[in-house]
Fold this sequence. Notes:
The structure is a homodimer. By secondary structure, chain A is α/β, with parallel strands linked by helices. Chain A contains 15 helices and 17 strands. Chain A has helices at 13-24, 26-33, 48-52, 64-67, 83-94, 104-120, 138-142, 159-170, 175-184, 193-196, 199-213, 232-240, 302-322, 360-370, 399-412; strands at 2-9, 35-43, 59-60, 74-77, 98-101, 125-126, 150-156, 223-224, 243-254, 257-268, 280-287, 291-298, 345-355, 375-384, 387-394, 397-398, 420-425. In chain A, strands 7, 8, 9, 10, 11, 12, 13, 14, 15, 16 and 17 form an 11-stranded mixed β-sheet that branches. In chain A, strands 3-2-1-4-5-6 form a 6-stranded parallel β-sheet, sandwiched between helices. In chain A, strand 14 (375-384) and strand 15 form a beta hairpin. In chain A, helix 8 packs across helix 9 (175-184). Chain A is elongated.
Amino acid sequence: MKQIGVGILGLGVVGSGVVRILQGHHDDFLRDQEIDLRIVAVSSRRDAQARELGLLDVYSSDPSSVTLNPEVDVVVELMGGTDTAYQCISDALKAGKSVVTANKALIATRGRELMYLAAEHGGELAFEASVGGGIPIIGPLRHTLASNRILSVMGIVNGTTNYMLGRMKDAGLDYDSALAEAQQLGYAEADPTADVEGYDAAAKIAILAMISFNTDVRLDQVATEGISGISVTDMHAAEEAGYVLKLLAIARREPAGIDIRVHPTMVAKTHPLASVNGVYNAIYIVGDAVGETMFYGRGAGEGPAASSVVGDLIELARHKAYRETIIQPVWDTEGLPLISDGDLESTFYLRLPVPDRPGTLAASATIFAELGISIASMVQHAATDDQAELIFFTHKAPVGAVAEALKRLNDSGILTGTASCIRTIA
Amino acid sequence: MKQIGVGILGLGVVGSGVVRILQGHHDDFLRDQEIDLRIVAVSSRRDAQARELGLLDVYSSDPSSVTLNPEVDVVVELMGGTDTAYQCISDALKAGKSVVTANKALIATRGRELMYLAAEHGGELAFEASVGGGIPIIGPLRHTLASNRILSVMGIVNGTTNYMLGRMKDAGLDYDSALAEAQQLGYAEADPTADVEGYDAAAKIAILAMISFNTDVRLDQVATEGISGISVTDMHAAEEAGYVLKLLAIARREPAGIDIRVHPTMVAKTHPLASVNGVYNAIYIVGDAVGETMFYGRGAGEGPAASSVVGDLIELARHKAYRETIIQPVWDTEGLPLISDGDLESTFYLRLPVPDRPGTLAASATIFAELGISIASMVQHAATDDQAELIFFTHKAPVGAVAEALKRLNDSGILTGTASCIRTIA
């Protein structure tokens, strides 16, 4: 029976959850995994949590009491932020320790650098909890699905926005009311920017793309659009046409390279992602051998995140205890380029606010025709007395052509407000 | 770069798929996983497939040319059946080789014995493809979710019956027509017994229970009921009440032990399993930390099964190549008893064919009342001129009490035909 020293940085919600699992399941892991996981050092800004969890005797406010502690074999980093966290993780890796983290912002920006550092010093870096909370996704991609060339990864990876879109659809709330409700329930933060503008989802898809395609992808390379522009009118139009509006994070392997982006998408109701509701997350993967698979569960919260952190911890601890497999770092073996969105094709939903008078339909249809954009269906809604809305669903069209059509529509003076333009998937 | 010799037993659909992945992705695995996987021996009854796959020079009709071949490090067993397969796998394990198999019947009956044999001789036994085809499920249970106490596992693990039930629901086909159609499409075999009577699902849930609960469960301990008794009337009643009829395989950890069974179940439409359609499979797991998760994908077919087999093969090959982690065998560490179904509680759907005359409702309601079975809702359908159908949905009731109610209803002479009794889940 091998004893493994665990050091924990950060005793917030997830950190406390990790401690509770380690305390509650210590004997289970001893019996089933043959490892004796001992919390030998913890650090957080204040000692209140350490006191509450009975860990005051191993507490210090100084993180280096964890990262440089010779009794610590595996460090669990749950302090958040990027600068101090980066410093702590590199200190620990340079000291030959393995590290588990849930820090998506850090992994999505400097993850590869840290993985190389781990490999160089004989340790490992694991970060299952950085994507999809409790949903096992990095594990399956690196183990069972390693047999596949991954063709695409698409996910609903932000519970806050999925909850808000669900309330806009089911209760008819507008964006502001849905946000206020999510904040009241604790699903959205006081400053909701990271969630509603899609940055949280962008960090997660960057990590998923890095793992899926063995290639270097960073957060700042993800084209990102949030949900703050979504109107109730768009929700209804989606519903009527057999779609559900979701904030999707998408990464695809195309012949020319990697296509990666986050934006609101109308998902056909028959697609497995369409029935992922509330704060649940799901990640949909297509591989060349396995075909379609989907992984579903809670994307956030103490239990789910702690579940993934401890799952990683057990694996790294077993490796340390039995001098076993070092998980392959994600080498940039393929070195695929990122491709520009404008070169791709997609199907679109377009909603154009126009004056209710003859000729507006003909004028907009002409612009689409000139750019070779083929219309799959069209409806006109009367909005107010002298206003109408033209709603188009297109066949596959070049993304660049649709952007140009919107520009020409704006220039033409036909529009009486801002047009909506949302991609659709079947 | 380590070279690993692969030997393959059986070159049917899945075996050929495995060969095609190994041939097509050889350089990817070399680059990303740092292993050089070489097919050094294959065996099947006839040499036609070996010839077609360009493997005639390593072909023999004698399985021992694979299992006892000193150049073979990992054996892939895809011959099917249980007796010869058992012999081949134990020969290989005794020779210190690791083994990957998709053989659910064998693993569900003698899996634990083979796992101990592997551990004794320093090899490993992996069987991801034995459950859920291409869906990564055993991997996640043994890696990421190892941090959890698994509370329940429920799955739609048989694509044939899921396809048939879908066609009965959506196209109004009766059982026989749905079966004939499934056979025509190649989804059901000429002898469909293993699928429609639930034995295939029973083997899979036995394996899932063994992994999830660290306890010994065998195929013959699973209470199994298939779909051959399902009528279109039951489908409609389910639809009307907000349920979908699915063949569920269920294993739950109860205070007294393990509850394990396979039977048709009415699943509330809001449950994630309700929207799993066609030949797709899904496995829904509840863990004490992670909460609800679900894994979805193709449960059968060349690509999906071969994907899981090669995923296992890569992992075992890396262990062999780098003398790394031996996956923990599933020790019977908890030794939980199986509990009798009659001691449990469930909610039920009951359909009683009765004569259309006064007093039948009162008579049946009285029997339920006497046994303490509380009714949640009730409707009466006129079936033919002098026949009616009473449809009850119950609150939670002891399984034994409901069985007794059915017995008393039968004895009372009220029923004009066979009653339907199907469990429901919300």
